[in-house]
Amino acid sequence: MAHSEKNLHDVCMSYPAIDNHAHPLLKEAHRERFPLEGLLSEAQDSALTEDAPYTLACMRAVPQLSKVLDPEAEMTWEAYKIARTKVPYDDLCRRFMHQDATKTQCLLLDDGLGGVDEFAEDYKWHDQFASSPTRRIVRVEIVAEGILNSMFASSEANINAQFLEQFRSKLEESLNGSAADAAVVGFKSIACYRTGLDIAVSEDLDGTLRCLSTVRDVHAAGGKIRLAHKALNDHIVRIALKVSGQSGKPIQFHTGLGDNDLALNRASPSHLQPVIKAFPETQFVLLHSSYPFTREAGYLTAVYPNVWLDFGEVFPFVSAAGQRAIIQQVLELAPTNKALWSTDGHWWPESFYLGSLQAREALWRVLSTYVREGEMTEKDAIGVVKNVLFHNSNRLYKLGLVPTV
């Protein structure tokens, strides 16, 4: 390894990081509640449990994980799953989540993932794994569902413009309350999953009222409210965009890569272009590398000052070569002062470890190639690493942190 590459390698592998998008870990009592294959894939059912072990993502992850549990063992995926069950849970979390293992200084957790309240640890519990306090990302659709549940339960709802205005007022008040909370650093929308990213800029009053009536009927029949009604969901997102812009707290959008619950043809961030234009004071964070629409995301990040691109979740879901290609696509056009790293870690401590290790390795391999080929200096490459791992998130979310180098 050349001297210049070694310096770059050291920074890639050891510089402290801010994980700008992740989710809580499972409680010990629920450590085996979900198939561990979810560590490797967004697939569901047999496509997850039977097919995910045959991916390059799994073949790469097994030796990386095994090395942490038993450096001398050569494990299969099935052997690893058995071995981890024999490790006390606090020890398992410590091995994979401790700052010495991940070099992560601060976690920003979206704690609105389904099942979090019942199965997962509180966001503050995660402070033990980083030197800076954990911060929250508020999922707006979950807040809206809670408000509607309360409104429908309190009285017989007459769905009209007045009811809609009451709902808007309550939602705006709740989101403003979150924005005023020092522990909350941003918002998140899962519109991509629910109705797609083609969010209308203007109100469709009749359509929104019809959606509200449908949701009310579901509630009245004893069903669980799950907001997947386009006019209503778009109404909710616009409220969140307004609050986000006024409060200066960014809003993250799930884009691209997800499970089969989303419509892939409506998951491209290019659909967000009208609302990006309509809310210029709102800072949009495009999550998950927008894979496989990474170039579209890079374009938006380049031409709009209020768009940022997160390159996360693809570690470890995508092969090593694919990860390098994704980073290359991010760097084709996106300004490096607006690229953010995350793990999208969730449920299992291993997801945070792999998300850190593989992202750092991919950054080094891509940037060291650019340095060798004379496309950037070593100094510039080191600056890119420090920015995407730490300083860009620190600035965007106004964290006020100093890297604990």
UniProtKB/TrEMBL annotation:
Q: Which residues cross the membrane?
A: none
Q: Which InterPro entries match?
A: Amidohydro-rel, Metal_Hydrolase
Name of a matching Pfam family: Amidohydro_2
Gene3D superfamilies found in the cross-reference section = Metal-dependent hydrolases (3.20.20.140)
Query: Which domain of life, per UniProt?
Result: Eukaryota
One GO term in the molecular function aspect is: hydrolase activity
Q: Where is the Amidohydrolase-related domain?
A: 248-379
Recorded hits in PANTHER family, A to Z, give: AMIDOHYDROLASE 2 FAMILY PROTEIN (PTHR43383:SF2), NODULIN 6 (PTHR43383)
Q: What is this protein called?
A: CBM1 domain-containing protein
Organism of origin is Mycena chlorophos
Lineage of the organism = Eukaryota, Fungi, Dikarya, Basidiomycota, Agaricomycotina
